[in-house]
Amino acid sequence: MAQTEASSGAMPSGVSQQASQRGPVPRPEQPRTIRRRVGAFVALTKPRIIELLLITTVPTMILAADGWPGTWLMIATVIGGTLAAGSANAFNMWWDRDIDAVMNRTKNRPLVTGEVSPVQAVVFASLLAVASVLWLGLVVNWFAAWLALAANVMYSIGYTMLLKRHTSQNIVWGGAAGCMPVLIGWAAVTGRLDWAPVLLFGIIFFWTPPHYWPLSMKFKKDYAAAGVPMLPVVANNTTVAKQIIVYAAAMVACTLGLVPVAGLGWFYAAVAVIAGAWFLTVCIRLYRRAASGVRKIEAMSVFHGSITYLTIVFVAVAIDPFLPF
Predict the structure, then answer these.
(1) Of 191, 223, 239, at which residue does a domain stop?
(2) Nearest by Cα to 189 from 50, 310, 85, 66
(3) Confidence label for 109 from pLDDT (cuts 50, 70 and 90)
(4) What's the CA gap between 96 and 126, in Å, rounded?
C-alpha cells in the first residue's frame, strides 16, 4: 500500500480536509544545484534528531564495554544507527507530507516545498533502511542489525502510520522507537541484551513525553489544524503538565536504578540525583504555572531542559566507567 501511495502521489488518510488538499508550496524557480539537492535529502533524515539519538548510543557502548569499546566499532555502530534513523525519519516525512504542509513548524520541509518528490523520498528511505541493516550486520553483528530494523519499523509504521493520527498516547508508545539506539549500542558491544540496557531504554521511554509534550503545547494550534490528536490538543495544559511530572519521576527512578544494576559509581549517582532534582523542579514549575491559569506557561523551557538533562545523564554514564573509584 505504501508503494502505491508513493507512486500515485496520493495523500495518506486520516487527516484534516485542509491538510489533504494542500500540495507542495510553489516557489520561485531556482537553479537546482547539487548542493541544494543533497541538502534536501539530508533534511529528510532530520539530522538534529539523529544527533540526539547518538548522544545516547555512544555512552551506552562505553558502559557495555566498561571502558572504551574500540574506535572502529564505535564509528561503525554510529554509521549504522545514523542510516537507520535517517531512513525512519525520511519515511516519516514522506507519510506526513500532507500535515506538514498545514503546520507552520514543518511547512518548509523538502516534500512540502517540492524539492523532493514522494517517489524519490520513499526510494531514498528504503535504500537507507537496506544499507543500515547490511552495514550493521556485516560490519558489527546481526543482532544489532535486526534491532535497527525493528526500530525503523516501530517508528515508520508503528508511530507514523498507526499511532500518530489516531491516539493522544501516540508519542508515548511510538516513542519506544527512539529508545532503541541504546539496545543497538549495547548489542553492538556484547552481542546480547542485559538488564542495564533495559533500564537505559526505560530512561528514554519515560523521557520522551516530558520532551515532546511541551513542544506540542507550543504548537497546539498547528497539530489541531492538521488533525493530529497530540495530548495537548485534546487535554488542558494542567492535565498535560501533571502527566509530564509523572513520566519525569519514572524517568529519574530509572536513572537511579541504573546505579546498582549497571554497577555505576558515586559520580554517576551524584549527577543522576542532582540532574533529576533539577529537571523535576522545571516540570513542577510548568505545572504550577498551568494550574494558576497563566496565559504564557513557557512550556519550551521544559523542552530545552529535557535535552540538557538527557545529555548530562548520558555524559555521566560515559565518564563513570573511566573513574578509578
Answers:
(1) 191
(2) 66
(3) very high
(4) 16
307-312: list long-range contacts, CB under 8 Å, 24+ apart: 307/52, 307/211, 309/207, 309/275, 309/276, 309/278, 309/279, 310/52, 310/55, 310/56, 310/203, 310/204, 310/207, 310/211, 311/55, 312/271, 312/275
Query: Does residue 7 surpass a pLDDT of 60?
Result: no
pLDDT value of position 54: 79
pTM of the predicted model as reported, rounded to 2 decimal places: 0.88
Range of the domain at 72: 35-191
Q: Which of 6, 77, 80, 58 is nearest to 314 (CA)?
A: 58
- 57 shares its domain with 176: yes
- Does residue 176 lie in a domain region? yes
- Using the Cα atoms of residue 241, residue 243, residue 249 and residue 253 in order, give the sign of their dihedral: negative
CA atoms within 13 A on the CB side of 161: 16
Tell me, what's the pLDDT at 223? 92
Instruction: Tell me if 137 is assigned to some domain.
Output: yes
**For the chain, what is the domain count?**
2
Looking at residue 318, its amino acid is A
Q: Which of 148, 168, 191 is the last residue of a domain?
A: 191
If asked whether residues 128 and 250 sit together in one domain, one would say no
- pLDDT tens, 136-165? 999 999 999 999 999 999 999 999 999 999
* 22 lies in some domain: no
> Does residue 104 belong to any structural domain of this protein?
yes
CA angle 319/324/325 to nearest 5° reads: 95
- Angstrom CA distances, 158 to 10, 195, 280, stand at 20, 25, 30
- Residues with Cβ within 8 Å of residue 60, at least 6 apart in sequence: 181, 182, 185, 186, 197, 200, 314, 317
- Of residues 168 and 34, the one with the higher pLDDT is 168
236 and 296 together in one domain? yes
Q: How many residues comprise the chain?
A: 325
